[in-house]
Amino acid sequence: MDAQFLPRKIATAEAAAKTDSDPPFKQLLSAVMANVKNPPRGDSVIYWMRMQDLRITDNRALAQASAQSQENNVPLLALFVLSPQDYIAHDRGARRIDFMLRNLRELKASLADVNIPLYVTSHAPRRTLPEFILSLLKKWNASHLFANIEHEVDELRRDIRVCQLAKESNIACAFVNDKCVIAPGEVTTKDGRGYTVYSPWLRAWLPHLTPKSGEDPLAAAARPAANPKSIYQNKIFGELFSIPVPEEVEGFALEDADEKERLSICWPAGEDAAHKILERFLYTMARYAQLGAVDPLSEGADSPTKNPEKNTRIGKYKDVRDRVDADTTSRLSPYLASGIISARQCIRATLELSGNKNQVVDASRDTGVGRWVQEIAWRDFYTHILALYPRVSMGRPFLEKFAGVKWETNEEHLQAWKEGRTGVPIVDAAMRQGLTMGWMHNRMRMTTAMYLVKDLMIDWRLGEKHFMEMFVDGDLASNNGGWQWSASTGVDPAPYFRIFNPYSQSQKADPTGDYIRYFVPELAKVRGPEIHNPPPTLADKLGYPRPLVEHAEARQRAIRRYKTPGQV
Q1: Domains detected in the chain
Q2: Is 442 designated active site?
Q3: Which member of 67, 277, 393, 405 has the lowest number of beta carbons within 10 Å of its beta carbon?
């Protein structure tokens, strides 16, 4: 394979296996257990906010930090550190960074309302970030540091180092489970291993949601208490209120003003926006007139109802969730990925919707509510995999037997896929939606991923990287899980011989053709079955490209290469 075409950041099989044998996630938990127990009172308590917990409501680390500051009778300070080298390492795109900054500005104002400063600063190089954090803790004479756990290998190792440095300085650290409804390591097989197949994992996960012994895993964490107004007179802490959130991060700026405005309309910032989008999914159902061009907060045409089995999006979800020619999903993924709303809150909302007074979550029911909770559960599942089997964040296939599959090195095909010029209408519509909105329906993510890997035989890691760079909701665990599923290399994967036919997928997902016509204007006037697979003469007439490959032949090539990895 051409060196310039190789995906970056692929660890060796040996390094991945070694990391799997002693996951940094478990090392962090051990470091927290060995933490300082009774530090000096100090002058402050620090909450360290990360990219995945951009909210005040139902934020466990923030709630614990607030409680500690109240107990110590000292101010609570919030900290956010921009780390451009981490964004590069994790393939963060400008859209995700812009979304983050917009939400940080909302949060700074909301926290200031309760006299809590949010100090947003930047640091490089990333390898010295632990020392930088400790320097701030010392500057502010902090007794405690609280943060929610990030599950990527690099971030876990960083936090382990922070624990070590803090312990040496007699500062207490608490790293808290918040992203997952149920923490990694709590849902295990009988022999104590993490599950690698979703269905049995789900059956084991569900009982953990039921309150036991007075503890409710779905309970909302308390909002932070207000600091005394006297904090504004503090020479060190008072000035933190006036330090603004940067407009951009160098190297991650959205240069196109139209794109910046479009994304702010598609994905408005703030917790209030996230809550309204959730309510819209739970209580109204309407087909949107212009796919991808409407405000997600716009009112539906139907009257609100609290019966989830009637005219609601969630009520229809079981039957139409794979349709892309109608507004069938919650569109909450950007808000869940950035932690602007918690997964716990989403599940609590379904209990309230169904009037379930026993607080029993039944995701096994074949209903819209049940299916949607299952989709939320997938987020937990893939994060559990990331934490317990860190090889997946090291560029390795979970199934090493497929590490030797021979990939194509066709730069023209890769670029055509990225730009939506493959000659397969449903693939091109989906890729252009991603370019336009920074988001794509999950069925289309599966379809486009399968096409890149199985039809074009291009390394799945190149597609994984592109999605992370393109999407507002880029999340390593979910993105990697989806790509490895499509590539048949991950946990609970599609069998290698299961290869989506993009034309039949198109007919199922977009039977009206409205989705294709909207995002592929070359085909805007095409009606009938030809919208899914235009004949060559029609494609040529309309200026639409012919298919890059013939699907039946590409399918046989993929099966052959997967069946005998290492051979062409």
Answers
A1: 24-178 (3.40.50.620), 257-388 (1.25.40.80), 400-563 (1.10.579.10)
A2: yes
A3: 67
